[in-house]
Known about the structure:
homodimer; three-stranded antiparallel beta sheet
Amino acid sequence: MKRGSRLLREAGFRWIGVEAGEYKPKGSDFFLTTKQILLGLGDRSAGLSFETRYLEIQPGGYSTLEKHAHAHAVVVLRGHGRVILDQEICELSPLDCLYVAPGCIHQFHATGDEALGFLCIVDRNRDRPRSPSPRELDRLRSDTRVAALMKTSTDRRP
Amino acid sequence: MKRGSRLLREAGFRWIGVEAGEYKPKGSDFFLTTKQILLGLGDRSAGLSFETRYLEIQPGGYSTLEKHAHAHAVVVLRGHGRVILDQEICELSPLDCLYVAPGCIHQFHATGDEALGFLCIVDRNRDRPRSPSPRELDRLRSDTRVAALMKTSTDRRP
Lengths: 158, 158
């Protein structure tokens, strides 16, 4: 294809030619979550200043509880879930679109019997995620619904 | 919701609180195409350097034949279509992911009985699309398949 345009075909929420890898390095606190970087990584889509990633969380799984200075644009493609956004919890269904603002502590959870899959678009150049501080964790836990849902490294499953 | 995060709920490929407007200003050469800017416009998602838009083309419709220096990241959400990418034509189906490289002349067409709907993500700050030059149009028309599919201002429907 001229000038470097290219098409990635999908089959069963896997994109051909894209590796479905670990969501984060080992040791990070997540569960049953994988990531495919569809576009915006490396030289093959060098014209993009942002990454288009597909994250998938199996039933019962969750992403890291974290915050960072960059924002997320999220569009749900499959399944159902809940997301912690500071002290709020939002239900997620297919095609819901979410803005995660800079500095917002967030964590995605898959609920129901199907995987929760969503596009998560971020700046290519961005800061590293950080864990909430002990004080921030205490504040989150002051809400009983958030306390019941959130998972931290001390809750890690066997 | 704290710190400005927010959720846009979807219903029938319309996002609540998002205007479904014209795809381009009047006089541009498109047909049966609408646009919703989900995130990245204005102050309410100021942390994003890119816009997440949803474009929808009704059966028989098409987007503008154009090129620009910025790239597109596209993820198909519904329907079927074809896209011209310089002198190539690619078939599009739900969840296919497309990189439109800088400078690539492109045009989306809805085929089949359902609307073609896709996310199209672009830099918030970007150059304006331009029409292909007469020489570029001649080059495109030298491919009979492209010539049969492409629509320009001289092909505009009544």
